[in-house]
Write a structure and sequence with these properties.
Radius of gyration: 20 Å
Helix content: over 70%
Length: 314
């Protein structure tokens, strides 16, 4: 329990020293309005999605991801009365790499290059989409890491140095009943599991575990890549410009990444992103976030699979 108390102390100290009531209200008002607009007017899949047929869709995506981050930076700048970071080329390079990775992933569906018999295309494209996403999240920042940092230190917090698994096991224990409760919600079951068993397994005449397990492994690796990008690259690089309040803009853009998810999952991403961001900042490691993120993601898939297989009949 000492590790849990340490994390709670991190959060309390960070909130008291770096956030405070005014900044917290400003962030929550912005994100609350953004969430309301998205789920009322279908911002991500409707308004933005309608631009997919246009040549400028890639750039619209970059603006879409950059906007909440820059708004968070503006709030941080107002609190510290310091906006010098907007004049730094390094700031804009980091932001470009970050938004480029997300926008390319959302714009160019490379998995469509995979074409097989109809029964197996769905499964193979699911695998290809995971591989594509992992590469798009890690390769650009990997190149930057080698060129700009000359491979000094851990790869954006991907280290177990000083890692204490105890607090995260407690978090998982606490989250388990919440995940079970969520698995009974209609919106949850519309979104999960992310891979539907059936056609490929029947076509190949194999045990479903032979397709399910590889999919879940790659699915888990996408969250490792996401943690390195969001809580590693974005925090550790932008910390040079924004100081310890660097977590705030990250939370703003992290919430928008969940606009296509069930409503409560989107709302909870605000607090989850904040907690994982503070922990990464204080421990200089994203490994705890990887554990939590993978546990939640695979847990939701498994619970949805169990619900639809054993409790919900067609």
């Amino acid at each position: 329990m000492r590790g849990v108390r340490k994390i709670i102390a991190y959060l309390r100290q960070y909130y008291a020293e770096q956030v405070g009531t005014r900044l917290a209200i400003a962030v929550l008002l912005f994100l609350g309005t953004a969430i309301w607009f998205n789920y009322t007017y279908n911002l991500e899949r409707g308004i933005l999605g309608a631009q997919r047929v246009n040549a400028g869709f890639f750039w619209w995506n970059m603006i879409y991801y950059a906007s909440p981050y820059l708004y968070g930076c503006l709030l941080v700048g107002m609190v510290g009365r310091q906006f010098a970071f907007f004049r730094s080329w390094h700031f804009w390079v980091v932001l470009f790499i970050f938004t480029f990775s997300l926008s390319f992933d959302n714009t160019y569906n490379l998995y469509h290059l995979v074409d097989a018999v109809p029964e197996t295309t769905y499964y193979l494209r699911k695998l290809a989409s995971k591989v594509s996403r992992i590469g798009l999240y890690l390769i650009p920042i990997g190149i930057y890491y080698l060129l700009a940092l000359r491979a000094k230190g851990s790869f954006y917090g991907l280290t177990t140095k000083g890692f204490d698994k105890g607090p995260y096991l407690v978090m998982m224990l606490i989250m388990t009943p919440l995940l079970v409760w969520a698995s009974f919600q209609t919106g949850f079951l519309r979104a999960y599991p992310t891979y539907k068993l059936g056609a490929a397994e029947t076509y190949w005449d194999i045990n479903p575990l032979l397709t399910y397990i590889p999919h879940e492994i790659l699915y888990a690796l996408t969250f490792l890549a996401l943690e390195v990008l969001m809580r590693g690259f974005l925090i550790f690089e932008m910390e040079k410009h924004l100081g310890e309040r660097v977590v705030i803009p990250m939370v703003c853009v992290y919430c928008t990444l969940h606009f296509g998810k069930p409503f409560m999952e989107c709302v909870s991403s605000i607090f989850g992103g904040f907690i994982l961001g503070v922990i990464a900042l204080r421990t200089r490691s994203v490994f705890g976030g990887v554990w939590i993120h993978v546990f939640i993601a695979l847990g939701m898939n498994l619970l949805a699979f169990v619900q639809k297989t054993y409790f919900i009949r067609p």
